[in-house]
Amino acid sequence: MNARYVYMDYNATTPLRPEVRDLMVRTLDVYGNASSMHELGRVARAEIEEARAHVAALIGAQNPSRVYFTSGGSESNNTVFNTMFLIGRNQKRRKIITTSIEHPCVLNSAAHLRDEGFPVVFLPVDRDGRVDMDAYCAELSPDVLLVSVMAANNEIGTIEDIKTIAKLAKEQGALVHTDATQAAGKIPVSVEDWGVDYLTLSCHKIYGPKGIGALYVRERAPIEPLIRGGHQEDGVRAGTYNNLGIMGFGEAARLARAELAEYGQNVSRLRAMLRGLILERVPNVRINGHPTEVLPNTLNVSFPGAEGESILLSLDLEGIEVSTGSACASGSLDPSHVLMAIGLGPELAHGSIRFSLGKYTTEDDVRYVADKLPPIIARLRRMSTVPAEEIIGEIRTEGAHPEGAK
Ligand SMILES: *Cc1c(COP(=O)(O)O)cnc(C)c1O
């Protein structure tokens, strides 16, 4: 056992916060089926509608009834792309525009539509991870059915300009979707201000339970169920209500909204501290992601000459939990598609670590990581055949952006 234990993988998932846990324990016995008309059903229904209002408030949605509960971010994203398949297969307007840095559940949904014969574009991003707006404008036309761009990236934390992206899409009559799974609870999110038609959320990234999420759908935007059955959720998502998950989600959303400013201040101060200490103590590193338009909790760093997986395991032995790229991509030996898309070569991409901080991160945690990390990097670099200076040089060579998802 380690003396210390430091969790810095909040973008993969978050612990259940005690307030949410307490509420869930209290509501474990709210077993009524919210579709039943009797008293027990009505009690469950009232609690579910309260939770829906909290989730709607977190994303600035004026009409809570446009928020549909799903099993999570992956299901919400799949629901949108499945809807595009059903309406696009019989019409000329069927082009899909997304980016090369989306979460795998969007990338693979888009790739599936491409395999089904839809024109699909995976937009390149710049070196900071922002959508290449020239490439975007060049792809816009009256044939575009959907533009899907994530609000903030899970690996490097870069925040996209969804408002401008949506405005340009609307001029062509296209629908707009954003995966706000990483943005919600970290930065202000507003479906009204951004002008999107669909927005995806997941509860386990905001200190709530796993297996619950939501999809916002604007009035009159088309939507087809992925799961057919009873007429729960206006027929958009069948299946008996997940009372416990929904109520936990409502409480997590309520607290996230109430604490947004405080969270942002605390976590960005800690991120700046970690960033400063790493730059001071480890030579030849590269900070990935946009310098200012970045999530306050996410710090992605390349340590050329040290292998990401080895860094991760060495940190794990010290009780420090971080990630290389994304949790969803680990287990695969390919370098992160996001790091490749921002122009890192495979050597640099393979030597990258994502530190994602959160609500329970402390200054002591940051100091502990900043103490343990430098000797680990130095040891791994001594074993490396290519000097760090040589690898970091590769980032300065301009190259074409890698194409697409796969
Ligand atoms: C975690 C995550 C998802 C998937 O959400 P689940 O609820 O785990 O299915 C989707 N998109 C992004 C950006 C994520 O970070």
UniProtKB/TrEMBL annotation:
GO terms for molecular function: cysteine desulfurase activity; iron-sulfur cluster binding; metal ion binding. Its cofactor is pyridoxal 5'-phosphate. Gene3D superfamilies: 1.10.260.50, Aspartate Aminotransferase, domain 1, Type I PLP-dependent aspartate aminotransferase-like (Major domain). Keywords: Iron, Iron-sulfur, Metal-binding, Pyridoxal phosphate, Transferase. Its EC number is 2.8.1.7. It is an enzyme of class 2 (transferase). It comes from the Bacteria. Residues 6-368 form the Aminotransferase class V domain. PANTHER family: CYSTEINE DESULFURASE (PTHR11601:SF34), CYSTEINE DESULFURYLASE FAMILY MEMBER (PTHR11601). Catalyzes the removal of elemental sulfur atoms from cysteine to produce alanine. Seems to participate in the biosynthesis of the nitrogenase metalloclusters by providing the inorganic sulfur required for the Fe-S core formation. This is cysteine desulfurase.
